[in-house]
Amino acid sequence: MLTPLMPSASSATVPIDILRFNTCGSVDDGKSTLIGRLLFDSKSIMEDQLAALERSADITGNGQINLANLTDGLRAEREQGITIDVAYRYFATPRRKFIIADTPGHIQYTRNMVTGASSANLSIVLIDARTGVIEQSRRHTALAGLLRIPHLVVAINKMDLVGWSEARFNEIRAEFEEFLPRLDIQDVKFIPLSALNGDNVVERSPHTPWYAGPPLLDHLETVHIASDWNLNGFRFPVQWVNRPHNPTNQTFHDFRGVSGQIAGGIVRTGQKLIALPAGVVTTVRQIWTYDGPVAEAFCPQSVTLVLDDDIDLSRGSMLVGTDHLPGTSRNLVAEICWMHPVALRRGKKYLLKHTTQTVPVVVTEILHKLNIATLDPEPEPAELAMNDLGEIRLQAAQPLYFDGYTTNRLTGSFILIEPGTNATVAAGLLAPPSEVIKPEIGDYAI
Amino acid sequence: MKSYHLDHLQHLETEAIHILREVAGEFERPALLFSGGKDSICLLRLAEKAFRPSDLPTPLLNIDTGHHFPELNEFRDQRAQELGAKLIIRTVEAAIAQGLAQPVPGEISRNRLQIPTLLAAIEEFRFDCCIGGARRDEEKARAKERFFSFRDRFGQWDPKNQRPEIWNLYNGRLNPGENMRVFPLSNWTEMDVWEYIQREQLAVPSIYFSHQRACVRRSGQWLPVNQLTPPTAREEVRNLVVRVRTIGDIMSTGCVESTATTVADIITEIAAARITERGSRADDKTSEAAMEDRKKAGYF
């Protein structure tokens, strides 16, 4: 998608931030229509896309342009009028760049929602004003809460079909607010709109004089996105050992660095770091980048660290700062979203990918399953089926170095992979560790 | 107070470098698809940023249809040489000669024939991963693509059954014969690509800039006059000042009238554009699902 609203003269120089958001709702709540409307009204739709829409309108839509066809990119989606897989859309206004993950609301919804929402700053839950809050709305909101998405917009759609009734809007809002306190979401905004007609999407609607808040796009442009990145404890999972074999430039003959993306905190030249799992302390000699060495680097930058000591480091190792130490254990407690047709049971073995390492694990206990209707935990279920949320205990073949998900999304998350099929079967969020690492090194005391 | 802030290009850059290093860490025999086009030029710079001062851990692979713009191939060869990278070229011509690809009688475009040529190259070199410069904003079917896009042993993409992709944890595990396509530029837009080219001062093939070219009007587009599809008696050949926005085969790449002679001019032009980049590619106009069908069969 192009960005016609961006002022061309300044576009290359002014730093613009990116808001990532996802939309979720049930079938026919009008998600795709809402995104189509956002793109259309913000003039992010190009003439040839409009021409393609008009071509398909002549064939299938009795001459009516279907905004949902802008996002439903697969043939089966257009034929069935549904969205099958997460679709990503891009648009920009002079104030922000946007990445939209359009997540379908039917089968495989949890897996699609988690895929679309895991990196989002904001989540839009669509509600059909005629039907109100349904189980899907609760499930989506619960997932947004679980994934700690900082901002939530409850878009009450199809308000035109309930006569723009303020009473109906308040009724749905009250229903929602009943279970919201049980979820960890800091900022919630309710917006009455009609995606089909464009009311309160980009332009303020004349039909809702009783609504004092902003239209949706206004809110998306101005919502304050607090940094998702943890700048406290330094975390550097090693992705790749950078060691030139036959460098053309002889100054790199003895170069040995470790490359990775900083997953938390800040690193400076001369700083002491602990290498895990060895538990050895070393010092940063240089922070190497293609554009030259830098004095400091921070999360989520990608850098190559050159260290004073030639210590054992390879993919899966982690360098950490000497304060805000991570936890370590072979025994893990995690909330998970189960995403596979074959249910999770106690005693099953999987591969767990955490940062840059993959280790075998066994499920030792299913602690509870979340009842979506009541949002209460049901203790000791026999299994977790597809789309279930629950808490489990795992034992890993070797200790993990990790943080709680609420402290650091990148070092507190994992996926489970089924050996053999290699299917990604679960997304996991680690509970805070019960003990932190205790490096036992001569010149270093905690 | 110091602000620890990355702008949008720096965000996209660190995301792409992370993905490239995950490929180096998780695959045995990756290849990087390099055509010499603007997206793969960015991809190469990102690979340099990910792996220097070491050599690139992947060879460069290009599937040459034989209908490429000569400027593009010259640029491709020169860039590979500058980087000291290994460049593997497999041609549709040779694939046809070896019976790996069968042209349909009367079919002039080599677009479809790239698929068996690519799959044969993957088999020949036992590549387990191909890194490509495709972006989600290019096309509707691409918008559904994951960063790590799994292909079965027939090279097929199953859009209904993709692996969930959560946080920055990519599942690169494969069984023998299977293949991964990885797209580090997934979240980049056409504008981001040009802004990055400007920031990094990257060289691009001359045909992206305004030049004089003989064109004919076909299906609402200015197509470059070429030997494969010569102008008919009724077509008027016009000498225009044009540039290309996206590069495909010489016979399906439309030229846009433009006076943009610098990257900054191009950025200004794109900001004001009212047509998408792929609007000038005849191969995507065949039907609404043209790209989806090619991707399912193993296209890039």
Describe this structure as you would to a colleague.
- The complex is a heterodimer of chains A (446) and B (300).
- Chain A is α+β, with helices and mostly antiparallel strands.
- Chain A contains 8 helices and 22 strands.
- Chain A has a 7-stranded antiparallel β-sheet, with no helix packed on it. Chain A has a 6-stranded mixed β-sheet with strand order 2-3-1-4-5-6, sandwiched between helices. A 6-stranded antiparallel barrel of chain A has the order 16-20-18-17-21-22.
- Chain A is globular, with a radius of gyration of 24 Å.
- The model of chain A is unreliable at 1-13 (pLDDT under 50).
- Chain B has helices at residues 8-26, 38-51, 70-83, 92-97, 114-125, 190-200, 263-272, 290-296, and strands at 30-33, 60-64, 87-91, 129-131, 148-151, 179-182, 211-218, 221-224, 238-244, 255-257.
- Chain B is of the alpha/beta class.
- Chain B contains 8 helices and 10 strands.
- The radius of gyration of chain B is 19 Å and the shape is globular.
- The mean pLDDT of chain B is 89.
- Chain B folds into 2 domains: 8-193 and 288-296, Rossmann fold; 206-282, no CATH class.
- In chain B, helix 2 packs across helix 6 and helix 6 runs antiparallel to helix 7 (263-272).
- Classes of the chains: A alpha+beta (446), B alpha/beta (300).
- The interface between A and B is large, with 89 and 71 residues.
Characteristic terms for this protein:
heterodimer; A: 446 residues; alpha+beta; Rossmann fold; Elongation Factor Tu (Ef-tu), domain 3; 3 domains; seven-stranded antiparallel beta sheet; six-stranded mixed beta sheet; disordered N terminus; B: 300 residues; alpha/beta; 2 domains; four-stranded antiparallel beta sheet; 10 strands; 16% strand; globular
